[in-house]
């Protein structure tokens, strides 16, 4: 070893010991004829003192930032203790030193608040990774990994590796494919998830499976998506939904405890998908704060069992509301005193193309119990009072109302709620609120193909009582305009998402395990028998040989880590991430390949431009 | 849950409890009006007893092998206890049952000794995985995984994920490549190992890194190779070779203990590469048994510091030896009584094309101290005695001698030694002998290109004292016939292999961390500056910003598991392996892809045939 101790290890109790340290030069400070150096490694920082005689040597070979240095010396108590540092009680009186490697001046400072821009830091990722802030993120990631493995081990899960070179069965997302040299003209695909393999492992009797595993999706990268990402992937046999919910809130609570020291003792709150959409406009609501939506008006075709509050706004001859498909309100606490400038700014905010509303209606609930609104012309004080009351608004609150087509308006209301929560400081980084969202629709309607698509994936089972509905009805949609009347539109999935602070961190389902039902599902998605056999023959085959009831879940590991680390960006929690164009800027990959490689793979380019 | 207990859990102490079990029907045995069923899951087998009244029901819906069954009943003590089974004291008096899923008759029996051939079992891998023998292999694999992680965690290693979509830099093996849709005309490569990334992590100060990670090589598959395989990949900063040897024999000993209950307390034996080649003909000798080689003759050009024993055979006018480049002997204990038939068979064995010898010379060391040989005409009793003595042969032993070109003969002697060890039962599956092989040559000579290739990989450092030799000499070889005289031929790598029972289970090296030396290495391998910059510019760049001394190792996880499991085949330890043509027979992958995929990737086929 090049050292006897790390740079984070020495304390006053080591006084007078002879030690050897190795690490990076963080700072060099000269005071007359002596020099102080802060030496850094993963474990900490230790102060070195070079005396007069060594200083002469130092002048011959000056130390720069990020030089790799080895020193031998004696541990001494500092006169000037640094209480900020665990090693702050001591310093090393250097007796000899060796420069193990020099360093050019880094293109940005290796500090928490670096002066490096994003591109520069990506190109020199190996330097960016030196910053304490980034290192702490990767250490947290490892702690989450370790905590998850320990919990799953205790619960008798087995880590079983599934293959990376599999078959392309493009359903939702695009596959990355890999040309096979040994099988010319054929391709492997990289897995979008180990879904079918973990199901086969249940068929094989492995009972409890997990893996922390890379998955791949060739999608156009929205902000903060990566073409390769990591899942905590789990599956259990002989379970019902309730068993999965219990097991995996246990997992997340265990991670909270091990990694963050948080005792999350209460049961995780549960909400149906419909409740979430109705009350928060969103299937992954952030429940750290209230501001629930008041549905003043909704179209008949959706949320059929829900009643809107249209009596509160009807008959006022206010065209904006009368002509809108949906009208949704929410009460922002304590915002009644917003100035005209502030409300104008909010109006501009909802008019941005990302939100797409035509305007915003305000009702200020003044402290004296009176109301002031942008629709005073249409609504009496009494009617405003009724709306405020239905919203749960208190004096001092500001009611915001959006109106327009159902889908867009609901999304806008949800975004507005989140934005106001953010502005009011209600989305605290150090508060963690879990939520199970349940009872998703099994199918979504695909307008282009006038057919069903699986909301989750084609292996998700319907609720047990709805299996008959699915088997007994034909999936074809005769009248596209009335697709919501089709029995399939009412089938709920036996599926669940785990939501943390408004982010979906995990999702899963009880799976189909009967061949007949699986075939019906494939047929509903527009797959004929031949295609079913080509793509999923192995799975249909497996279901013939004693497949047990089973279900599972997968957690987005990158996202989970970033939320626990209090960051918006998953890239900060990935050692070598790619940029939005799917490039590794440091490697300069992807790149061209040699003619020999094309030749061996028996493919060639067919560039369009 | 579909069960209250697993099929491996119930004991006499559970007597009279009401329980629910779920699992697979292993056997059905009818005795008059009652039926016994063995119900199986991952945890064990439990006997079920269906009484007369249930029997009527059973007749309506007969149970077959591999049906998935749920039963409720009461635990009862058996009159006829089965001492072979942990649950053998009890049986379940079934009160009600549900067939959760039926099963077609499996194409082979789900038993340890199955009647299924290799191809059939691969196609129905999900059924093969049900066999206890296969399940135990995957459980052992998980135990090794767990033990490795625990040890490395204790030693402060961090599991840090490295990317799978990287840049193609084909050096030794071929890369699998992945066309990039977002960057048309460009390709990612799948990593052959995370080598450069783990080195960058050392440059970034992570100090101790590990990963249990998939790697990919597009090679023609020899028996028992897989295109995707798993490594325990490790790297440490501020270390010398000795630190690595200590750390990682600790790892393997810890795995032995946790997984096999073996206390491997002695230090792992060490041997130089030259010693291994000289004494065993092999760089990964199986040291569970002796039978060391006697080098009777070797060419001058190799093993220059070694002396052969040619005096023992010279001057006898025996052309086979006189004309051979190399002559190597070994003494097989207790085989002097081999019959003519047996020695003929051995001669045939060495003449097989895989071995390639022209013949085999025998000396029988008879029990009475006399000798009988196939070369009596050329060698006197006294000379035979000298050879026997130099071989360490005892009365009763059989000396075998091969002669021919150096490389082929040494390999033949090694193969012969292993074969005889096998025949004599000296290679015991339950005996584990570790060995470090050290001081490999840094370079190998490539005849075709008349240049050097890296024996390990281009990042391996030479021995510290030979760095100067490498820097100060030009790599070019002027006279191909005298390449062994080039100073580079004598440079030893600061590298090490760990060998277990004659298998290389791990290998690594101290790395180059100085830009100048790395550039020299690349140049020695025939890479010009431009190519160096294109392929490894990021690494050369990293070495300019304070790279610490570092080194590491990677273990072949599949192989390690198979040896610990006492199997010859790594496939038995992989859940979903590929066959020798790189195909997943169950998935039927690789396969063709859609026109849409070609179109999006902007590539097309260019088939030769």
Overview features:
OB fold (Dihydrolipoamide Acetyltransferase, E2P), alpha+beta, BirA Bifunctional Protein, domain 2, 28% helix, Gyrase A, domain 2, 609 residues
Textual characterization of the structure:
2 copies of one chain form a homodimer. In chain A, the strands form 5 sheets. Chain A has an 8-stranded mixed β-sheet with strand order 6-9-10-22-21-20-17-11, with helices on both faces. Chain A has a 5-stranded mixed β-barrel with strand order 1-2-3-5-4. Chain A has a 5-stranded antiparallel β-sheet with strand order 12-13-16-14-15. Chain A folds into 4 domains: 90 residues, Beta Barrel (OB fold (Dihydrolipoamide Acetyltransferase, E2P)), CATH 2.40.50.140; 174 residues, BirA Bifunctional Protein, domain 2, CATH 3.30.930; 139 residues, GAD-like domain (Gyrase A, domain 2), CATH 3.30.1360; 84 residues, no CATH class. The model of chain A has no long low-confidence stretch (mean pLDDT 95). Chain A is built from 16 helices and 23 strands. Chain A has 609 residues and is α+β, with helices and mostly antiparallel strands. The two termini of chain A are 56 Å apart. Helices cover 28% and strands 24% of the residues of chain A. In chain A, strand 1 and strand 2 form a beta hairpin. At the A-B interface, strand 1, helix 3, helix 4, strand 6 and strand 7 of A face strand 1, helix 3, helix 4, strand 6 and strand 7 of B. Strand 23 of chain A pairs antiparallel with strand 23 of chain B, so a sheet runs across the interface.
């Amino acid at each position: 070893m090049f050292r006897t101790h790390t740079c984070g290890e020495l304390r006053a109790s080591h006084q007078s010991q002879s030690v050897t340290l190795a690490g990076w030069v963080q700072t060099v400070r000269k005071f007359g004829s002596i020099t102080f150096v802060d030496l850094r490694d993963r474990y900490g920082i230790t102060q070195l003192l070079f005396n007069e005689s060594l200083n002469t040597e130092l002048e011959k070979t000056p130390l720069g930032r990020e030089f790799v240095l080895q020193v031998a010396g004696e541990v001494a108590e500092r006169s000037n203790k640094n209480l900020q540092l665990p090693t702050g009680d001591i310093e090393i009186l250097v007796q000899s030193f060796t420069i193990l490697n020099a360093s050019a001046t880094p293109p940005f400072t290796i500090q928490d608040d670096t002066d490096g821009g994003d591109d520069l830091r990506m190109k020199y990722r190996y330097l960016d990774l030196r910053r304490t802030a980034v290192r702490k993120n990767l250490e947290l990631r490892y702690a989450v990994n370790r905590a998850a493995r320990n919990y799953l081990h205790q619960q008798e899960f087995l880590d079983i590796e599934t293959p990376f070179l599999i078959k392309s069965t493009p359903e939702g997302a695009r596959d990355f494919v890999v040309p096979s040299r040994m099988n010319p003209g054929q391709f492997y695909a990289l897995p979008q998830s180990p879904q079918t393999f973990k199901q086969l492992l249940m068929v094989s009797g492995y009972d409890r499976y997990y893996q922390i595993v890379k998955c791949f999706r060739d999608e156009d990268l929205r902000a903060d998506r990566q073409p390769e990402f990591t899942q905590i992937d789990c599956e259990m046999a002989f379970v019902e939904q309730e068993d999965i919910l219990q097991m995996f809130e246990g997992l997340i609570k265990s991670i909270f405890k091990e990694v963050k020291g948080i005792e999350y003792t209460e049961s995780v709150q549960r909400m149906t998908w419909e409740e979430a959409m109705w009350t928060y406009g969103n299937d992954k609501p952030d429940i750290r704060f209230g501001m629930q939506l008041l549905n003043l008006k909704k179209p008949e075709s959706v949320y059929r069992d829900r009643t809107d509050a249209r009596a509160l706004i009807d008959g006022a001859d206010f065209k904006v509301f009368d002509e809108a498909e949906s009208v949704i309100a929410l009460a922002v606490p304590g915002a009644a005193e917003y100035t005209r400038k502030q409300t104008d700014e909010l109006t501009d905010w909802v008019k941005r193309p990302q939100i797409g509303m035509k305007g915003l209606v305000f009702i200020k609930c003044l402290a004296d119990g009176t109301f002031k609104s942008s629709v005073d012309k249409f609504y009496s004080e009494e009617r405003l009072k009724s709306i405020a009351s239905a919203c749960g608004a208190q004096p001092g609150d500001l009611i915001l109302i959006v109106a327009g087509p159902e889908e867009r308006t609901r999304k806008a209301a949800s975004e507005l709620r989140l934005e106001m929560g953010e502005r009011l400081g209600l989305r605290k980084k150090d508060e963690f609120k879990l939520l199970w969202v349940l009872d998703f629709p099994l199918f979504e309607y695909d307008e282009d193909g006038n057919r069903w698509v699986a909301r989750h994936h084609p292996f998700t089972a319907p609720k047990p009582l709805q299996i008959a509905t699915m088997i007994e009805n034909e999936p074809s949609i005769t009248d596209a305009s009335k697709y919501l009347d089709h029995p399939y539109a009412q089938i709920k999935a036996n599926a669940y998402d785990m939501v943390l602070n408004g982010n979906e961190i995990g999702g899963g389902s009880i799976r189909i395990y009967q061949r007949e039902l699986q075939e019906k599902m494939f047929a509903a998605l527009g797959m004929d028998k031949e295609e079913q056999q080509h793509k999923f023959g192995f799975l249909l085959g497996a279901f013939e040989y004693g497949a047990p009831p089973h279900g599972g879940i997968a957690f987005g590991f990158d996202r989970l880590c970033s939320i626990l680390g209090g960051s918006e960006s998953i890239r900060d929690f990935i050692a070598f991430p790619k940029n939005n164009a799917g490039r590794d800027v440091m490697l300069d990959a992807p790149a061209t390949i040699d003619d020999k490689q094309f030749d061996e793979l028996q493919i060639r380019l067919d560039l369009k431009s």
